[in-house]
Amino acid sequence: MTIEELKKTIKNLRKVCSKKNDTPKELLDGQFRGEFPQDERLMCYMKCIMIATKAMKNDVILWDFFVKNARMILLEEYIPRVESVVETCKKEVTSTEGCEVAWQFGKCIYENDKELYLAP
């Protein structure tokens, strides 16, 4: 599947996670312009997305699962990029608090390969 197809499959999580965290539309839309303010509502929205997609559990990113899942779902051409971003972001995610962990990871993905940024 392509990145765009994958984005469509998780699009419905935007409504669920934004409602759960009272995340305003402005914060959600800002992600796609590279705007990642350290706002608890955005940070916890990102955690909600990661938990719903099983990329995070108990405030920890499941790095191996993330890559393994990408290999099963995405077209082969994307895999080296996913692996590269994961290796880079593993070093950049330093928090141990769940919402901030997800936020650091999302921000890192966007800054390193924004096409791979999937949050709806």
TrEMBL record:
One Pfam family of this chain: PBP_GOBP
Gene3D superfamilies linked: Pheromone/general odorant binding protein domain
InterPro entries noted in UniProt: PBP/GOBP, PBP_GOBP_sf
TM spans (from-to): none
Any GO molecular function: odorant binding
Name of this protein: Odorant binding protein 8
Species classification: Eukaryota, Metazoa, Ecdysozoa, Arthropoda, Hexapoda
Gene: Obp8
